[in-house]
């Protein structure tokens, strides 16, 4: 008899990829024997209608949730977090929480104690990586911790890297100054071995207008559409307002999180370029699927020094990771580790 459950909800459709990781996680949970007790997954764009669907689906699911079973949920879930965790505790279920974002680390919440109290309602937390795991351990987390290593990105993709000269370096995601201000200074580097192809929303064309700009804006697409649109040689993971480091709240968050765009790049067959201090850099270096940099000042020379043989070997290794990312491998391994402990 099945004793592992989750409750699906409405995920508001948008051109950004905010809902994609959570929707994928539900599909991977299904693959691993978890049963949805709520309504089926929906994508209504209306926030009001979505909240109503989610509330009634969650209420139905919590009513049906058997006592002393295993329940998995995802965080953040601000509207319904207390409602769900109170009933899960009342029914004496084991609670697994998959962490997508930590608001304190993002600079969106200054009350660490309050957010950690939420995490401590769980028996098990699936966190992004070993750097985030260490942060939880150092800040009073009582739940057992399992590292995800990399977010999955469920999509059948036949995309492969294209070797152009100069290299096409892809940057996907929020292109506004709050998150990616560095983009508007990158022309100062005057590189000769690459140009940047931008995919996403918030790009301010007027702030990047110059005839010799290396910025090539491609447009904004949905999380599934963008895979078909991306053409490039590498994918860049960088945040903040500076070229010499990842700074500001979004930049510092890279010290702990697994950016979902990393998985997108790998799904498209692209080796990854990332800040050396980013938590995900350890994975890129271990698998030898990209380049880590202290500063974007180093990127031109680093790319100029890559020969075709080295690049092709990198791309071959990316293909192996791509098959794992597209099939839900990383969450499946983490979930199985948790279930073994239970």
Estimate what percentage of residues fall within beta strands. Answer: 15-25%
CATH uppermost class of the largest domain: Alpha Beta
Task: Write down the Rg.
Answer: 21 Å
Strand order of the largest sheet: 2-1-3-4-5-6
Number of strands: 12
Oligomer: single chain
Q: From N to C, what is the helix and strand string?
A: EHEHEHEHHEHEEHEEHEHHEHEHHH
* Termini Cα gap: 16 Å
Number of domains: 2
What name does CATH use for the topology of the largest domain? Rossmann fold
Uncertain runs: none
Biggest beta sheet attributes: 6 strands, parallel
Number of helices: 14
Q: Outline, from the CA principal axes?
A: elongated
Helix content: 25-40%
CATH architecture descriptor of the largest domain: 3-Layer(aba) Sandwich
SSE diagram, text form:
Elements: E1 4-6, H1 20-31, E2 35-36, H2 47-64, E3 70-75, H3 81-90, E4 94-99, H4 103-106, H5 112-119, E5 124-127, H6 130-138, E6 144-147, E7 167-172, H7 177-180, E8 194-199, E9 215-219, H8 225-229, E10 234-237, H9 248-253, H10 260-267, E11 272-275, H11 281-287, E12 290-293, H12 299-304, H13 308-325, H14 329-341
Parallel strand pairs: 1-2, 1-3, 3-4, 4-5, 5-6, 7-8, 7-10, 8-9, 10-11, 11-12
Care to give the gist of this entry?
The protein is of the alpha/beta class and about 350 residues long. It has 14 helices and twelve strands. The model has no long low-confidence stretch (mean pLDDT about 95).
Top keywords for this entry?
342 residues, alpha/beta, Rossmann fold, 2 domains, six-stranded parallel β-sheet, 14 helices, elongated
């Amino acid at each position: 008899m099945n004793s592992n459950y989750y409750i699906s909800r409405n995920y508001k459709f948008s051109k950004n990829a905010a809902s994609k990781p959570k929707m994928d996680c539900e599909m991977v949970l299904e693959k691993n024997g978890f049963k949805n007790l709520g309504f089926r997954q929906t994508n209504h764009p209306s926030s009001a209608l979505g909240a109503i669907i989610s509330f009634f689906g969650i209420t139905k699911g919590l009513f049906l949730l058997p006592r002393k079973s295993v329940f998995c949920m995802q965080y953040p879930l601000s509207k319904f977090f207390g409602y769900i965790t109170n009933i899960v505790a009342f029914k004496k279920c084991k609670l697994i929480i998959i962490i997508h974002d930590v608001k304190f680390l993002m600079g969106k919440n200054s009350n660490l104690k309050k957010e950690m109290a939420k995490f401590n309602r769980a028996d098990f937390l699936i966190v992004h990586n070993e750097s985030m795991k260490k942060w939880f351990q150092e800040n009073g987390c009582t739940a057992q911790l399992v590292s995800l290593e990399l977010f999955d990105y469920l999509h059948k993709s036949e995309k492969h890297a294209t070797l152009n000269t100069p290299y096409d370096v892809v940057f996907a995601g929020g292109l506004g100054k709050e998150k990616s201000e560095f983009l508007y200074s990158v022309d100062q580097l005057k590189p000769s071995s690459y140009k940047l192809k931008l995919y996403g929303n918030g790009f301010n064309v007027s702030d990047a207008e110059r005839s010799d700009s290396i910025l090539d804006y491609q447009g904004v697409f949905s999380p599934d559409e963008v895979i078909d649109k991306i053409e490039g040689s590498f994918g860049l993971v960088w945040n903040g307002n500076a070229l010499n480091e990842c700074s500001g709240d979004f930049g510092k968050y890279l010290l702990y999180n697994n950016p979902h765009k990393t998985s997108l790049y790998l799904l498209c067959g692209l080796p990854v370029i990332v800040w050396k201090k980013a938590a995900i850099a350890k994975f890129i270096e271990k698998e030898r699927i990209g380049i880590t940099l202290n500063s974007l000042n180093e990127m031109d020379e680093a790319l100029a020094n890559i020969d075709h043989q080295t690049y092709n070997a990198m791309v071959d290794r990316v293909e192996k990771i791509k098959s794992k990312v597209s099939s839900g491998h990383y969450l499946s391994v983490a979930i199985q580790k948790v279930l073994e402990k239970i």
